[in-house]
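Page 42, continued from yesterday. The earlier attempt failed because a stray header line got pasted into the input along with the sequence. Redoing it now with the clean sequence only.
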Amino acid sequence: MIQNNIVLIGFMGSGKTTLARELSKICDAFVLDSDCLIEQRVGMCISEYFEYFGEKAFREQERLFIEWASISVQNCVIATGGGMPIYNDVHPMGQVVFLSLDFETICRRMVDSECAKRPLFSNIDEARQLFYSRQKYYEQSANIIVDAAIPPKRLAKEILTLL
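This time it went through. Structure tokens are written below.
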């Protein structure tokens, strides 16, 4: 059991959801995926929400998620959306872990179906630019920075050791 929530941040495709599941197995914690919960709350997928309401409205949904999780959630591993720590302070939710991974590895991990679910990944050149522009925000937001190229089971153990 963890004493505080573990909040995973990083670019789209860096492995936040996969690692959250591994961490939950080891420390007997629940997993919350902010994008999934936001989709349930608004009744549509993220790409549809972006299309109909725009990014600004989506970032407001993320802010509301942080507000709720900060007050209501304990003993959880929280996988955040890639932009959440860029536009919002995620520290109130728990200990923040940045999954650092190079852009080329992220691209190899992403299949076409994954890219289709991620509106900001529709243009590879723009996604690359976005990736590099976000790195300093991830680093500044993190309590811990880890190499996300490490296999998830080993990485989960390393994170728990560091915490």
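Notes: The beta strands are 6-9, 30-33, 76-79, 95-100, 144-147.
Reminder to self: strip header lines before submitting.
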